[in-house]
User: Fold this.
Amino acid sequence: MKAWAAIAALFTAGLLVGIDRPFLRHREGVPAYFAGVARNAVREGTVKTRLGFLETSSPDLSVYGEWRDYYYPNRPFLSVWITSLWFRAFGWGEWVIRLSLIAAALGTLAAFLALARRLLGDRWAVVAAAFLAFNPMFWYFSVVAVHLVYSLCFSVAAWACRVRWGEGRRWRVLTFIFLVLACMSDWPGYFAAFALAVDAWLERPRPWSAAFLGTGLACFGLHLLHLLWIDPAHGPLVDRFLSAGTERSAAGLPSLGAFFLSEAREAGLYFTAGGLLLAAAGLRRLPRRAWILVLLGLEELVFMHWAYLHDFLSYPLTPFFALAAAKGAETLWTSKPRRAVVVALAALAAAQSLWITGDRLTRNGATEVQYRAGLAVRETASPSERTLLTIADLRQYTPYYADRYTAGIEGGTPLRLMVHPSAGGIPVTGVGDLERFLPEFTWALVGDPDLAAREIKFFGGKRPPEAFGFLGPDHPLRRAIEARATAKVERGAFILYRLK
Assistant:
């Protein structure tokens, strides 16, 4: 118990680093997006939002016209709803969402320890818990990948109850309760249902296999009914949800070779060289149920294009690799020379974990640009005004900090002028194509390259690369904006022009 407490304490201490800093680290557009949606749930209330992913960012919904067009259909509701409960209790802010995720991750660790004790025994269960806690994929992304954190927590809890299935009715009931919560948090919960069904099929009696599959199907049906309930037109939201599966599958991949190369890089980076070597040593002796846990990571194959673009989708695989690494350590722990190998590999894994996780927790990324642009908008525009952003934008990030109606160009093919991803966007050829939209906005935000070199730390005192969309005084769009403007305000690296 002391070892478990030490693991949990060190795990938590690491994640408290910069707990109140802005969402500027690797992939922190994810918590920024969830924070924005949860903030809407608090502002507008559960009844009005109908537990949906409402993406609007301005407190004044009238500025959107039909605000119901801004629902995002591709995720179940529970992860946002839980986040909104934390916001109701403590207010919205970066530290609140990170603290809520730390609590959920500690729940995962506790459930995993209970599961590992059944699969590996008490001694090696603690080792497995350490491999899970300090795996950089789990350690860092436990305060980033909101939906996956909750889904994995409930999935592992369901498995921890499943291995005690024969000890009484309450364990069987709890298995289904946690499974439903996992499914209503995110898609790995459905893969947990499939994994439990496989386990039940192999264990017998086989009707329980159908019960687990039926639970997943029932939750999927509830999600479709939920979309029909919040969709004013009763159809488009469901159509968008169903079409998203094709967009995220292998159909959008550059090539299978590129996908597997990307996956290999992620494994070496986040699962650590030492951990992977120990896992390889333990694979042959893993108990069957530990092997079934690999099915929690099926999203990597089902949505290959999405996995290629998002490194954190490997997060649900961390319990399997932790069990494999602990089993590898146990397998090699038979003589002094082999024990030395285990210690060396564990030390190598620990050093890499501290390096990768420490870097991720302390280094800011390029989102400093959108963060400062969002603050500039919030300080200048009122909730009833619309602002056009001319910088290269991230539409699932900037709106949280802007807290106002904004539109910007989202990257991809084709480029789109977008308010929020839920409503799609208008194809544009580039920033020069924005002039025709100026009459629709109260403000236009322009990034000045000389100001950026001075005001934005990420650029290190240099003018930003062209890809960031900062416009010099001679740029045709900036000159067109200045010709229409009735006033302008300078905010850090940005100039906001009042258009009407």
